[in-house]
Amino acid sequence: MIEKALLLVGSPKVEQSTSASLGNYLISKLEESGTTSEKLFIHRVVNREEKVKNLLNEIEAMDLMILTFPLYVDSLPAPVIKAMELIKDNKTFLNSKKPQNFIAISNNGFPEASQNDTALKICRIFSKECGFIWKGGIAVGGGGAINGVPLLEKPGMFRNFIRGLDLVAQALKDDKEIPQEAHDFMSKKLIPDSLYRFVGNYSWKSQAKRYGVKQKIKQKLY
Ligand SMILES: Cc1cc2nc3c(=O)[nH]c(=O)nc-3n(C[C@H](O)[C@H](O)[C@H](O)COP(=O)(O)O)c2cc1C
Q: What is the mean pLDDT of residues 6-22?
C-alpha cells in the first residue's frame, strides 16, 4: 500500500499543462485506495530556499514520487534538472527508512512517444543515484492534444491514457513495475500523425498572425 505519494509537476504551465493532467489523474486513482498526496510545481520551488526545504521534507516523507514533465530539446526542463540535482545532493542527509519508489512521465510535442526515451533514461539513472526503486518511465507523444485538459473531461478521446494510467496505478498498488500493456496504451496516438501536424502547423501560423509576426515565422536566430 502506498501511504504517501508526492507529485512533482515539471511544466512551467503548471496546472494548465499536459504534465499536470496526466499526474493528477494518476494521483486520483491512487487516492481511491487511501493514498494521501502532496503536489509541488517545480518551477515555483527550485529558486526559493524555504520551498526547497519543504521539497526535501516531502521527499523524506513519501513512499512514491511521481515526476511528470514536458520534453524540452530531448531532455528535461532546466528547473527539473536543478530539482534532481538538489534531491541527489541532499539525499544522503534524508533519513527515510522505508522503500521509496519513483516513476517518471514524460510527454512531448512531436507525435512519436519514443522521442521521450533519452529523458526517461536520465530519470532512471537519477533514480539509481538516489537509491529510489525505479518502477518505470511512461512516454506520451503528441502531448499538445491533451493540452492541460483533465482526462475525465473527455473520457472518450482520452480513453487510452485513462486505461494506461489505471494499469499504472494498479501496478503501483501491487508493488510491481509498470506493465508493458500500460506502456502500450500510453503510447497510442490520439489522432493520425498527418492530422496532428496539420493542426499544429495551423496553430503556429494563427498564433504568429495574432502577434503580428506572420512574415517572420521562418526567421532564424543567426
Ligand atoms: C523549449 C521547448 C523545447 C521543446 N522540445 C521538444 C522536443 O525536443 N521534442 C518534442 O517532441 N517536443 C518538444 N517540445 C514540446 C513540448 O514537449 C510539448 O509541447 C509538451 O506537450 C508540453 O507539455 P506541458 O503541457 O506538460 O508543458 C518543446 C517545447 C518547448 C517549450
A: 98
Residue 3 CA to ligand 1 center (angstroms) comes to 32
CATH architecture of 4-190: 3-Layer(aba) Sandwich (3.40)
- Average pLDDT, integer, range 38-63: 96
By CB atoms closer than 10 A (0-12, 13-18, 19+), residue 60 is: middle
Helix or strand (DSSP H, E) at 141: none
Distance from residue 143's CA to the centre of ligand 1 (Å): 8
Q: What is the pLDDT of residues 127-152, one digit of tens each?
A: 999 999 999 999 999 999 999 999 99
Q: Which atom of ligand 1 is nearest to the CA of 142?
A: 21
Q: Which of 73, 106, 207 to mutate to test the pocket of ligand 1 (most atoms within 8 A of CB)?
A: 73
Would you kindly state where each structural domain of the chain is located, as residue ranges?
A: 4-190, 194-222
Instruction: Pick the residue whose CA is nearest to atom 7 on ligand 1.
Output: 73
Query: Which among 101, 117, 99 has a CA at the least distance from the CA of 183?
Result: 117
